[in-house]
From TrEMBL:
Record-level GO cellular component terms: endomembrane system
Organism of this sequence: Nesidiocoris tenuis
Protein name: Amidase domain-containing protein
Sequence ranges assigned to domain Amidase in this UniProt record: 67-295, 307-372
InterPro entries per UniProt: Amidase_dom, AS_sf, FAAH2
Superkingdom of this protein's organism: Eukaryota
Pfam families hit by this protein: Amidase (PF01425)
Length: 392
């Protein structure tokens, strides 16, 4: 016999259906008549390559780092007027860094395998969130008072420093919501960032600038941070890979106001990329001295351990401002921050509206390798990232 709780559940489901219907109707009436911005196609095929593949081509001198860096800088200039993803750049300095890489490669006695082991991303351009400190770059968190003071990074955050040490070349920093505390990338300093698959839609937050820039081939790889889905939500909305590592593996020094002294935290920096093959070497760089706690190169990756395949979200990327009426959808991502376990967003195609959809691969603590191995297999079966200039 049905109880009052059963009736209440049915009633709440009806209310939720009605609310969703009205919200969808209102926002579709507002936005559907507005034209979508068109993302231009790339003019150099290597702009769509993985960071791992680019590094190999640079090491073997099939491409120069200068050539690659110039191409990404030009691509950023081409698309940023549409996306509003980049808030500060160092293109000229990055090109000089790339020239030094090419000079090093012309004179070094190191073998290709030695270079791959010690500097897996040598000469590869990357980007990072504006809220992750990088020396000489904007460091405002989208706060007007910090912009007025012209706040710049004094030193590199630990994660930026680690990627530079392993050969990466920082070319720009990307937009975030104010203090990283919202699920849309918009603030009163730099404005609103848009989704490269549909400019009427959000990129998510707080790593939304990273996600949309990467998906549109404006960077090879990017550093995200995740305290409530801030890496995985934008990765989902923009059709790329984003991994939230096991908690406390990666130093938080330089992530917004953090000094890296936390004994435990839900925030974690992590890799963002278009291709799953970048996730393992990228995470290996970011964990630094803690890499021994993971089994990133375990030959028997899956063994008897299990993973959870969990929806990346209840719906595709919403229209701008729609998240105000559905604020608790972030729980699809935030629950795994609270549990402090690893989770990876995997793109899985497109909705009927032509927007990315995906799922999360979740594993137990320190089983990040399971998430990444499954992501690789799903990429093989379902194709992974699809460029916005092809999908549209």
């Amino acid at each position: 016999m049905a109880t009052w709780i059963d009736y209440l559940i049915v009633f709440l489901r009806i209310v939720r259906f009605c609310v969703d219907y009205v919200v969808d109707l209102i926002f579709s009436l507002i936005y559907d008549r507005r034209p979508k911005a068109v993302i231009p196609p790339i003019d150099k095929p290597f702009l769509a390559y993985s960071g791992t593949k680019l590094a190999k081509l640079i090491r073997t001198k099939q491409l120069t780092s200068e050539e690659v860096t110039r191409a990404f800088a030009e691509r950023c200039r081409q698309i940023n007027s549409i996306l509003n993803a980049i808030v500060d750049e160092r293109f000229d300095d990055a090109i000089q860094d790339a020239k030094k890489v090419d000079e090093f490669l012309a004179t070094t006695d190191m073998s290709e395998s030695e270079l791959a082991a010690s500097k897996p991303f040598l000469g590869v351009p990357f980007t990072s969130k504006e809220s992750t400190e990088a020396e000489g770059m904007s460091f405002t968190f989208g706060i007007i008072s910090r912009k007025i003071q012209d706040m710049k990074g004094a030193v590199d955050s630990n994660v930026v420093n680690l990627l530079k040490q392993r050969g990466g070349i920082l070319i720009a920093v990307t937009n975030v919501p104010e203090l990283n505390l919202w699920c849309e990338t918009r603030n009163n300093v730099f404005g609103q960032t848009v989704n490269c698959y549909d400019s009427r839609r959000t990129t998510g937050g707080s790593s939304g600038g990273e996600a949309t820039l990467l998906a549109a081939c404006g960077s090879a790889i990017g550093i995200g941070t995740d305290v409530g889905g801030s890496t995985r939500m934008p990765a989902y909305y923009c059709g790329i890979y984003g991994h939230k590592p096991t908690a406390d593996l990666i130093s938080t020094k330089g992530l917004t106001f953090r000094a890296g002294n936390e004994t435990t935290t839900m925030v974690a920096a992590g890799p963002m990329s278009r291709h799953a093959e970048d996730l393992v070497p990228f995470l290996d760089v970011l964990v630094g001295e803690n890499r021994s706690k993971l089994k990133l190169n375990d030959a028997d990756l899956l063994g008897d351990d299990g993973v959870l395949l969990f929806p990346s979200g209840p719906r595709e990327a919403p229209y701008h401002y729609e998240s105000f009426l559905r604020p608790y959808n972030f729980a699809y991502w935030g629950i795994f921050n609270a549990l402090k376990i690893p989770a990876t967003n995997v793109p899985m195609g497109f909705s009927k509206n032509g927007l990315p959809i995906g799922l999360q691969v979740v594993a137990g603590p320190y089983n990040d390798h399971l998430c990444l191995a499954v992501a690789r297999e799903l990429e093989k079966e379902f194709g992974g990232w699809v460029p916005p200039f092809i999908s549209n």
